[in-house]
Write a structure and sequence with these properties.
145 residues, alpha+beta, Alpha-Beta Plaits, 4 strands, 43% helix, Transl_elong_EF1B/ribsomal_bS6, Small ribosomal subunit protein bS6, structural constituent of ribosome
């Protein structure tokens, strides 16, 4: 079963641009040979890392969006793990993320709908004229006994 994944990996900052391109092409080939497709490739550029990773303060971020089965993703992760220029990577299953976001949107829409219903009902009830006050019954004097 094919699912959508985002694979982000960080390449050493001293890696040459053509080496990074070859690396990306190699990972894309791994995905296509496994029966998957690469939907998009985004080079996010060089960024500072939050903490030292393999003695590096910064790295080149690359984001791959792929559609593949679990075995292909497992093979891609294995190749990322043994690849020398890759210092860190993460894989996220996006169809689960999309389901979660759709659920949040549905909850927000239902809350908006519920909050809009009383506001819509209130103006309808407000213009109604108040009923005339009913005549009060006459008080009866207590009987003396």
């Amino acid at each position: 079963m094919s699912r959508v994944y985002e694979v982000m990996f960080i390449v050493r900052p001293d890696a040459a641009e053509e080496d990074v391109d070859k690396l990306i092409a190699g990972f894309a080939t791994t995905v296509t040979n496994g029966g998957g497709t690469v939907k998009s490739t985004e080079k996010m550029g060089r960024r500072k890392l939050a903490y030292l990773v393999r003695k590096f303060n910064d790295g080149n971020y690359i984001l791959l969006t792929i559609e593949a089965d679990g075995a292909t993703v497992h093979e891609l992760e294995r190749r990322l793990r043994v690849s020398e220029p890759v210092i860190k990577f993460i894989t996220v299953r996006m169809d689960e993320e999309e389901k979660r976001l759709a659920k949040i949107k549905a909850i927000r829409a239902s809350r908006r709908k519920l909050s809009a219903e009383p506001a819509a009902a209130a103006p309808v009830a407000a213009p109604a004229a108040p009923a005339a006050p009913a005549a009060e019954p006459a008080e009866t004097a207590p009987a003396s006994a």
